[in-house]
Amino acid sequence: MTTHSSLGVSPTSTRTRAVVLGASMAGLLAARVLSDHFDEVVLLERDALPEGPLPRKGTPHAVHPHGLLARGLQVLETLFPGFTRSMQARGGLVGDMTGDVAFDANRERFAACHGGLQALVASRLAIEAELRGRVLGRPNVRAIMRVAVLAPSHAGGRVVAARWRAGPDGAEHELAADLVVDCSGRGSQAPRWLREWGYDGPTEDRVEIGISYTSAYFKRTGGLTLGAGIQKVGTFGAVTNAQPRPGVLLAQEPDAQGTPRWVTAVGGFRGDQPEATLEGLRAHARSIGAAELQKVTHEGELLGEVMRYHMPHSQRRRYERLRRLPRGFLVMGDAITSFNPIYGQGMTVAACEALALQAELTRGGRDVEPRRYFRAASRVIDIPWQVAVGGDLSIDRVPGQRPLPVRIVNAYIGRLYRVAPSAPVVSLAFQRVVHMLDQPAALFAPRVLWQVLANRRPQPIASAQERVASARQSLT
User: Fold this and answer.
1) Per-residue pLDDT tens digits for 163-215
2) How far apart are the two ends of the chain, measured CA to CA in Å?
3) Distance between CA atoms of 426 and 419, rounded to whole angstroms?
4) 362: domain range?
5) Is 279 exposed, middle or buried (0-12, 13-18, 19+ CB in 10 A)?
6) Does any domain span residue 93?
């Protein structure tokens, strides 16, 4: 990859250009879509982009576990044909989301079934490296790296150029652009830029989650076999008020030395922070009670260091509610909404926003009407935001108003969690909503609703010791 610093074609050229601020997942997805509609696409990135699946300063969270939901995999396969095969070639594993990945709630395991939800387990670094190679391999896409992005130039009701400084004390540069897309993450300065240009900034919804989690990689010597020879490539633990600590275990592609890996993470809300030590990881794993998570963290060979990540709040910036917006300027990805990471929604939402951008470019041409785009992006965000916020507000530790609709839905989901371990229909319906394949209304379809409401007697939550003892028998 080459670092470019020239200005390129002049503002009077008839060639069209789009500039993307940030080359993380959302930025790469935006560049992929824009490359079909503009003569040139330029990515501005503050880091030096690595050649392979390596961490970088601008995305410290990328080394922690990430999930690509079933809908996200579908979208990436559409935008990057052959993506799934390429990830398998990198060592990623593919399976059925409801058959090969286990889902626990209140220390009870949802009924397994093969519902046709294709799952991909691979690291965020490997996924991003695959997309980065494909996007920067397109002939009309280039990256300008090691830059500090400045406020774009605005004139006559539209953004007309991107601006940046090359290095902390370097010269300022300006590049004329027909469209600038801000994909700079949750620290985006777009609200401030809008106010400087004479517009209102977006209002912001926040949920003070105070989520912290500790992650580590372990050597993977084989699959986890549970009963009937079923191989699991991952386990997820839902957070509930009875069990408010998230836990995840995912198979990962081999490292640079060819060693297959597991990645684990355990977490807690608002002060319930696991120590960034192996013992801290193990202690939280014991309290969560998932046998596979305990087996790997207690018996597996640690690879590298134990890491911690903290996120104080989820945030959603309501650009779709603004009445005036400049043309030639859009926002995408975490710069609009950053979710509680335990739900694994970020990459999939960014992919769906890329499809929304693609639809607007196809419909209205390169001069996208910003209010229409932000409304389309909002429709993408609505359901995963409701899922995440509803889940967070089911935890007493998380502050915030809980209006009646939220309390009703959370009560229903609590009942669903009690039924799903013995009801494959309910388990599958829930997973299809979580993976953004169905609307939440699917959880109230007659055959699901009947099974959830018919089970009226609360079931006791097995103790962690009982859960581990039972599962260990099938693991050994």
Assistant:
1) 999 976 788 999 999 999 999 999 999 999 999 999 999 999 999 999 999 99
2) 47
3) 7
4) 17-58+129-204+317-389
5) exposed
6) yes
